[in-house]
Amino acid sequence: MKKICALMLAVVMAVGMVGCGNSDKSTAKGTAKTTSSESKTAKDTLVILGAENWQASLSPLKHTSTMMLHAEAIALEHLLVMDEKTQEPQPNLATEWSYDDTKTVLTVKLREGVKFHDGSDFTAEDAAASCEAYSNADNVSGSWWADELKCNVIDDYTFTITPASGKPLGSLVNMLCSTPMMSADDLKDPENTIDKKYNGTGPYKMVSFENDTATYELFDDYWGTLPKIKTIQYKYVADATTRLSALQSGEADVIERVDSDAASVLESDKNIKVDKFLTTECKHLIPKFKMKPMNEKLVRKAIAYAIDYDGIVKDIFSGYAEKADSFISSTIWGYEKVDGVGEYDPEKAAECLKEAGYENGDGLPELNIYTSVGFYPKTKEYYEYIAACLQAVGINCTVVPLDTSAWGDVLYEETPCYMIDCGWQPSGIEPELKLNSWYAAGRISHYEPTKELQDIMDRFATETDSEKRKEILQKEYLPALAEEMPDIPIIKSMTIFGVRSNVNGLEYTSGADYIFTNVTKD
Amino acid sequence: MLGTVLKRLVQGIFVTICVIFISFVILRMIPGDPAKVMAPTATPEQQQLIRDSMGLDKSIPQQFKMYMANLVKGDLGESYFKSDTVVNVMKQAVPLSLILLVSAIVTSILLSIVLGTVAGLNGNSWIDRLISSIAVLFQSMPNYWVSSVLIIIFSVNLGVLPSMDYQGPASCVLPTVALALPLTAVLTKVVRSSLIDSYNQEFVKVAYARGISKVAIYFKYALRNSVIPFVIALGTQLGFLVGSIVVVEYVFNFPGIGYTVLNAILRRDYNLVQGIIILFSVFFIVLNIVIDLGSIRLDPRMRKAQGGL
Amino acid sequence: MENRTENTGEVILQVKNLKTYFKTGPHKVVKAVEGVNFSLKKGRVLGIIGESGSGKSVTARSILRIVESPGYIADGEVIFKGQDILKIPEKEMRSIRGNEISMIFQDPTTSFNPYMTIGKQLAEAYNAHSPSGSEKAKKEILRVLELVGITNGEEILKKYPCEFSAGFRQRIFIAMSMILYPDLLIADEPTTSLGITIQAEIIEALSEVQKQTGISIMIITHDFGVVSQFSDDIFVMYAGRCVESAPKKDLLRNPKHPYTIGLIRSVPLLEARKTKRLKSIPGFPPDMSNVPEGCPFASRCEYAKPICHKEVPELKNVGEDHMCACHFPLDYDVSEDTELG
Lengths: 522, 309, 341
Description:
The complex is a heterotrimer of chains A (522), B (309) and C (341). Chain A has 522 residues and is α+β, with helices and mostly antiparallel strands. Chain A has helices spanning 2-20, 66-75, 124-135, 172-175, 184-188, 240-248, 260-267, 297-306, 309-316, 346-356, 379-392, 404-411, 432-440, 451-462, 466-484, and strands spanning 23-24, 33-34, 45-50, 80-82, 89-91, 94-99, 106-110, 149-155, 158-163, 204-210, 213-218, 231-236, 254-255, 272-287, 321-323, 367-373, 397-403, 419-424, 488-500, 503-504, 507-508, 514-515, 520-521. In chain A, strands 3, 10, 11, 12, 13, 14, 15, 16, 17, 18 and 19 form an eleven-stranded mixed β-sheet that branches. Chain A has a four-stranded antiparallel β-sheet with strand order 6-7-9-8, covered by helices on one side. In chain A, strands 1-2 form a two-stranded antiparallel sheet. In chain A, helix 8 (297-306) runs antiparallel to helix 10 and helix 14 packs antiparallel against helix 15 (466-484). Chain B is mainly alpha-helical and 309 residues long. Chain B is built from 14 helices and no strands. Chain B has helices spanning 2-29, 34-38, 44-53, 60-72, 86-121, 126-140, 143-157, 170-200, 202-209, 214-225, 227-252, 257-266, 270-298, 300-306. In chain B, helix 12 runs antiparallel to helix 13 (270-298). Chain B starts with a helix and ends with a helix. The longest helix of chain C is centred in the middle third of the chain and has 18 residues, at 196-213. At the A-B interface, helix 1, helix 6 and helix 12 of A face helix 2, helix 3, helix 5, helix 6 and helix 7 of B.
């Protein structure tokens, strides 16, 4: 009896040691460490693990969630696609588009021979219905839009778009790069169609959705180049460590939202590669204007100068982020650096405070920063860093971490926080997607623009010529924002994907949607 | 006996109703609500529209009245995020958790009897101390850590078992082990100490003096007399086990009731959370009744005291 | 000690130079039984009497080899039915326990398994050595119950031990020990934890059993009254040794050892003699881990001489069947003791 037990214990310990040990596999390529095992997914299947919960409805009209946007983009397509290098919209489902003289009517010609997954043809009726529904203020997706759209069908492959207010909508063409095309019939009966299943024109059609997993298969009647991978499985896995383990054990091919600590572990693993790039997302510290003294420009500027942005990137993110240098991310159309943003200058901060009458922070109430935990990476850590930076110039500040729902509660409120953390990942690269709701509408900060700034915003909103738009944005709008500092941009987020080494050719849009055209698996 | 059972059941119903009410109110009072989770970046007006469609615009007492009216009919409402009735969602999730629970319990019982016997029969020898130390170790290791370690060893490094989801029997092994370890530890200690206790009892020594074989003494005297403390410990631990299942399922992404309730809470899926709370509450009440009455039944001395003999 | 066989009957049990020690510490050994010799004849009752700590229970347990660790049998022989049972393998010993030699214990409350019915435990006793059908077992069970005076055996079988009084339980236990017709019954302080009226009940039951089956009994007690009622031969133990042994009548009329005399004088009622005043033996039994040189009783003996403190007295024949371990055995006639009146 004793001997049997001793033997059993020895076996258990042996297995434990073997399992826990790192195996150093030397190959001809070099001596990279491998802590993971062989891939377990089928050669013609790609398994992707997402980090956000599926919403109750799949309808693109009813959410603003990033993961849902990625999931949609696998099956649904847009009228135009943005060329990343030239930052010019290219034809996709639309082949030609042009404004009339008043710049209020955009005529769009569509590609012929495109089919929906359910077999019906894609016509102007569908495009018109999609544009109207997507921009409708009654739908959640309407919150991306500065104005609603009214569409008229001319013939099967031609239709016009007019902003409902009658004023020119400068952002319209760019916005068409992120407006998904749905079937007009589906839009009439959403509960039985788009709420439950995607029906689009994309290379993959959705075949099932259960247990938090969406399964897509190649759509043989696709109008463009058919990718090689036959099946995509897009699955929500709640726990970050579980996603990581699944990637390492070979049960998943791609995982989203890897945090910077895990990224360095994965980088050293031979079986895994890390795709990292800047997204359209920026993280900002947003003051609440209804809470004095946040309405004082000098105070805001003092805060902006007091923060050591490089320190945050290096120490908190280990280099997996970039410091903000503008009010929009570098991947956004029309991006340009502006002075005053991302500048660390404690002396200037002290000067601003002195000028505002709060020398060394005297006279300032104890401020607070509300931040979410568990949604954006490392928020608690870098806000504590920021609080320390503020402390160094005399501004007393506490950090209040909240879970995502509680934070969501306070996000739009006027009180009780002085400042709140927020990120914004627009669905496309059109700058208005951010600038409008943040500064023109002032939804989170309750900021009211000055007359000058308001004027710039109005002109930008109605300018339809893309060259002229860029000029207003870069020469007037962004500098004016830097002068006003309605909020403080902190970092440009990097999104990190973990991908198995045997997956080749996976590409991404700047919104981090997947491009599967050239993907193959060894 | 029947009278006691009925009395306890009535008490149980009363407790459940209190639990329902308290959880109902607390859920709606904590920050965040389903509308904000569904559309975090929508305007407050749009979020309110969503709330109205869920009936959350009414006052809490009104909502409670409507909920109870439906509950009596057996309607637990609809989940906001799973577009299915709460009853259906639970029906899918519960069997999967039961697989884990039953496997964990059976494994623990078998392992603990073996280990506890080895430890108890060789009291204070090196093997007893080894087993007791291992038991303490297993009991103190937090279950999310154990789960992660198991995943690292068996899925990532050895690659022999899946790390997530329900994919048939292989995917149930690691979660079962994670659940079973602390339970085995506790039960092993119970078996060990009650065996040592039994063997110290006079009647066991007398049985030995009567020439009863050691095997018979082990099974009929020592082990059988360990049944009561064993059953009581098992019943108590069952409560912790059900709590652990939430964490373990989450780490393993195993779609049982624990995973479901955790996601429901994070998403503020009120109806689903409420339904699962009711389920757990009923479970615990029934469990307690069974343990109490069971232990009285099993011990003839207590039965006599109760007047049952 | 020479072999003694009586011509009145064969010897069923003979204990030769039994030594049982307890290792209580790395260098500490308690010599609980230090060279005990006696024999028990078939059909007779041997009463072993002594104070607490005299080693009488340990002797009984040594015979059955159920001494608990840290006790161990250091030396000696126990010849039962011609075989030295200290040397046989455990398996054979187990078949003797409960079968050929049975033992009854002091506390009937803790002797029974509280979770099993009486009937089951009796059946288990029966089946432990020769498993057979329940019908046969039941017959035997009812038989032994009747033996101890329990006539409503059928009714009580389904009940649990906790449902009966202590005296009743002890009788059932006696019955249980008799179920396989053992040759020797060892009773280890069977009345010590019971009240005086129950004592009588138990002694009565034992007598009845002895009369009807002719079984040999070894009864261990510290109660002189019990021994004088019930036994045929008496064996007095002190500090792990035998100090005197004789048939009852002889011992009671002419005790030779100062300790035995002291015991007799300290008993309130002794057959027909009534004592005016109890006389207790001064002093305490020795520390068994540190026994002094010489006679273990010397420090308490009013007749002790220098030699008593130096040499251990050997067990010598002082009369017919009468052995005594004393350097100066007394000549004492109880009937002439004026103090005893």
